[in-house]
Amino acid sequence: MPPPRTAADEAAAAWSQALSLMEGMTSDRTGKAITSLRSTLAVYQRRRVPGAAELARRAGEALA
Fold it and tell me: Is the CB of residue 42 less than 8 Å from the CB of residue 56?
């Protein structure tokens, strides 16, 4: 039986889906959302939330 999902796991899954949906979009609003996401992800990375580092990498690529 897999461990129960935490709120952080749920957030990471939602953000991952959001990043996937934002692929190819270049609006100012999308950029601001991704920038905000990256600052929040920094906290999750320090807490070593699974998937946070990969999500931060994807967010960085989306802004590049």
Answer: yes
Q: Is the pTM of this model over 0.85?
A: no
Q: Which of the 8 DSSP states describes residue 12?
A: H
Helix (H, G, I), strand (E, B) or coil at 56: helix
Q: What pLDDT, in 10s, does the model give residues 27-50? A: 899 999 999 988 888 988 998 888
Q: With CA atoms as reference, report the closest residue to 49 among 19, 13, 24.
A: 13
Sign of CA dihedral 63, 60, 33, 36: negative
Q: Is the Cβ–Cβ distance between 20 and 34 less than 8 Å?
A: no
